[in-house]
Design goal:
By secondary structure, the protein is α+β, with helices and mostly antiparallel strands. 36% of the residues lie in helices and 26% in strands.
């Protein structure tokens, strides 16, 4: 649903998602025990993870906004003049060497969980609204570990119209190819660790196809110069 992509990209993106959906059907919210049992490791270490990301934020370093990392995302990141910042650690199986040095404990934990293909901290400014959108690639499922949740006001995510209220130190897992939206109607920042977890793909042909698509996405990450744009300054 990236709005500024060219017509050919949009056609293939939409066709590809339709093809995946014809082969893989899961609900909007997914059972953590069934799809990502490793979540327990992250919940056990969430306070250490929180210390690291808060240390980076308090250091005064500049953490790029989402649309600065990916200029196809202005319509959800630069939509209201409020910041949605991303601290990227891992992008489609490629580690961000400089950023990971800022979060060594978190990085060490994630490197032991092989199904994690992307990892980043998502920092929403007070009042930030991320409008309805959906991910283009069904080969991953989206995990969120709530790191810092506003104590007063309305802060939640909707996936396929169903709300989820974050609880610090707790996890949620969902299929981000469903339409989802985030509301932070509070005076505080919301911080979460977001992971892309590799989905189990059924069938030999689909696994080969998914491997090909994953490689294309890796190539686009490099072509977009995402690592340079993601650097914390």
């Amino acid at each position: 649903m990236q709005n500024n992509r060219n017509g050919l990209f949009k056609f293939f993106r939409d066709w590809n998602l339709k093809f995946y959906n014809s082969k893989i059907k899961t609900p909007a919210y997914l059972n953590l025990e069934e799809y990502f049992p490793e979540y327990k490791i992250l919940e056990e270490n969430w306070k250490e993870i929180k210390k690291e990301v808060e240390s980076v934020i308090k250091s005064g370093k500049t953490i790029p906004k989402f649309h600065e990392v990916d200029n196809g995302q202005e319509y959800i990141s630069d939509n209201d003049g409020l910041s949605w910042n991303l601290l990227n650690l891992l992008l489609y199986d490629m580690w961000h060497k400089k950023n990971t040095k800022l979060c060594p404990k978190t990085t060490s934990i994630l490197k032991k969980i092989k199904v994690v293909k992307s990892a980043y901290f998502s920092i929403l400014s007070p009042g930030k609204h991320i409008p309805p959108h959906k991910g283009p690639y069904k080969g991953i499922i989206r995990y969120q570990l709530a790191i810092s949740v506003p104590k007063k006001g309305e802060c939640k995510i909707f996936v396929d119209g169903t709300p989820h209220y974050w609880i610090e130190g707790k996890s949620v897992l969902f299929d981000d190819t469903y339409t989802h939206e985030v509301v932070n109607n509070t005076d505080e920042h919301r911080i979460a660790l977001l992971l892309d977890v590799k989905r189990s793909i059924p069938g030999f042909f689909m696994r080969q196809y998914d491997h090909f698509i994953f490689g294309i996405i890796q190539f686009l990450v490099i072509l977009n110069n995402t690592f340079s744009k993601s650097k914390i300054k």
